[in-house]
Specification:
single chain; 548 residues; alpha/beta; Rossmann fold; TIM Barrel; 2 domains; six-stranded parallel β-sheet; 21 helices; 17 strands; 47% helix
Length: 548
């Protein structure tokens, strides 16, 4: 006997090109299920068609007008006018109302699929924003139709909030944290009646109203993982041009660093687990041929320098005509052969810079890196013709105008090709959460629940979002956002581009347009819900990636 299941990825409205990347996590789970004799179907709603569904045609003219008003305000006054703010808020209200109706339609579609494939269980991947709020509503609607169907969930949101999800909702029979490849196959055995929940690692569930945890277990040998599955019949969103053909490669897991804000060492462990270089190159070849692409990203949150160097050599040795992007190192920059990476097809590196203030790096971040190393790494990568992204957290807990000025000066001096400014996020389990008071955060009493159900307003600028339930360094959410926006404005004045990540650099390289044009086009198309324009952009990208 084997089970049939449905794996669902719903994250609300796809808001950028990189939200159209195929989901490697669900593809990995599908591979594990099939290897152990079970069948599954991936329903991925981060697609081009979902954009059309979530931004109806009747609102697109108004969205275009609002975007032009937004641009005009920012050019002339550097801030939104009351008229434009009110227009955006009203459009957001209409879109949210439409979205609520769409949740039910999507739930009914999934119900039809459950009946069509005779599914034994369903699994949701939970994300922040509608990836949790919307998924929970969809799951609840399905539960009303099938009260006895087993419904599970996993994904980043479970790693963030764990048992708090089960305090909030009873719609899931169990939720999975950590790595899911073994867990999903054992859950299939549980559904068959062959195994008990307490025997399955990485689970959180309720028993007699008491929340139970099973032990955390990680995949020790990545070489033994089955190939992820992107076949059209298993992953229908891969048909045609619903997704961009840009594949994530699981080359490593784990991170030996201990940054105070980061969840990755908790999720993936504080030591590296590495795939053999030949296995990584084999996987790139196989998936490239199956999907019809030569565009990849190394998925590791902290890919070690020596592994990238060895992979570059293997790619060159095999003559693979690939383009890829990856995480970059500042602390270990001297160990990375940037010229070799560029020669092998590496387009861009994403550097977690966080701050240009040594005090902030030491006190707030625990980065273990010197400012001089950051500057040297970015300059060396630039010299090797790699496009660099410097990711900044602003403001950090002990940020001041002086430390923010230090960050500005470092970025102007180091000249990364793009700066991505992230708002501070306090994730349960991290040092920022455990030592929040000491590090300058004032978390509201209901911080966990409000953060867990926080809604991401893709249409609205951050200044119009609901405030995060904390103060940072004595500043309100809106004061913190103003500091970040001030930094972005100063960087642009000094000729530094903001808001382009490594994904978009790769997209721009295939579209033969400048990164700035790719950024501006991406912002306009997704803001206005221009389905036809997004479809053309995706089609063009997919036409230009070919199997290696």
């Amino acid at each position: 006997m084997s089970t049939r299941s449905i794996l669902v990825n719903f994250n609300g409205y796809p808001s950028t090109m990189n939200s159209l990347v195929p989901d490697n996590g669900l593809a990995n789970l599908a591979g594990s299920l099939f290897e152990t004799g079970h069948e599954t179907l991936i329903l991925d709603y981060s697609t081009v068609d979902t954009i059309r569904r979530m931004a109806p045609q009747e609102l697109q003219t108004a969205l275009s007008d609002a975007y032009e008003a937004f641009l005009t305000d920012m050019r002339t006054a550097g801030k939104l006018s009351e008229k434009t703010s009110n227009l955006l808020i009203e459009l957001d209200r209409k879109l949210e109302q439409h979205k609520e109706e769409e949740f039910i339609r999507i739930a009914d579609e999934i119900i039809n699929k459950i009946e069509e494939v005779n599914a034994d269980f369903i699994g949701f991947k939970l994300w922040t924003g509608d990836g949790f709020y919307g998924s929970e509503k969809i799951a609840r609607h399905i539960r009303g139709k099938y009260p006895d169907l087993k419904i599970f969930a996993g994904g980043p949101h479970v790693d963030f909030f764990k048992e708090n999800i089960l305090h909030y909702t009873d719609v899931f029979d169990a939720i999975a944290y950590g790595e899911g490849e073994e867990t999903i196959s054992l859950l299939a055995e549980y559904v068959e009646g062959k195994r008990k929940l307490f025997e399955i690692p990485n689970l959180i569930y309720k028993q007699d109203r008491e929340i139970k945890f099973t032990d955390l277990k990680r995949v020790e040998d990545l070489n033994l993982l089955p190939d992820p599955i992107y076949d059209d019949e298993i992953y229908p969103a891969m048909k045609g041009n619903q997704k961009i053909k840009f594949i994530m490669i699981d080359e490593s897991r784990g991170c030996p660093n201990a940054c105070h804000f980061c969840i990755h060492p908790l999720k993936s462990g504080n030591r590296w687990r590495l795939r053999d270089v030949t296995k990584i190159a084999d996987l790139m070849e196989r998936l490239g041929n199956k999907v019809g692409t030569n565009a990849f990203r190394l998925a590791g949150s902290n890919t070690p320098a020596h592994l990238k160097n060895e992979l570059a050599l293997e790619i060159i040795k095999r003559g693979l005509k690939v383009r890829y992007v990856s995480f970059g190192h500042a602390r270990d920059a001297d160990k990375e052969d940037y010229e070799l990476l560029h020669k092998s097809g590496c387009v861009s590196l994403f550097f977690g810079v966080e701050s240009g203030s040594q005090e902030i790096l030491d006190k707030d971040i625990n980065k273990g890196v010197k400012v001089e190393q950051i500057i040297r790494a970015l300059k060396r990568a630039e010299k090797a013709e790699l496009l660099t992204v410097a990711s900044i957290i602003a403001p950090c807990p002990h940020e001041t105008p002086e430390t923010l000025k230090q960050t500005l000066d470092v970025l102007v001096k180091a000249k990364p090709d793009s700066i991505v400014i992230q708002p501070p996020c306090v994730i349960p389990g991290t040092q920022w959460y455990a030592n929040s008071s000491k590090l300058g955060f004032e978390l509201h009493e209901d911080y966990i629940e409000k953060s867990m159900i926080y809604r991401i307003r893709a249409l609205l600028p951050l200044i119009l979002w609901d405030p995060m339930p904390y103060r940072i360094g004595g500043k309100t959410y809106y004061e913190a956002i103003a500091m970040a926006q001030g930094l972005a404005i100063e960087l642009e004045k000094k000729g530094r581009i903001t808001g382009i990540d490594d994904y978009l650099f790769l997209v721009a390289s295939y579209l033969n347009i400048s990164p700035k044009e790719a950024r501006d086009r991406d912002k306009r198309l997704f803001f206005t819900g221009d389905y036809s324009g997004i479809e053309r952009m995706v089609n063009m990208f997919n036409e230009r990636v070919t199997a290696p």
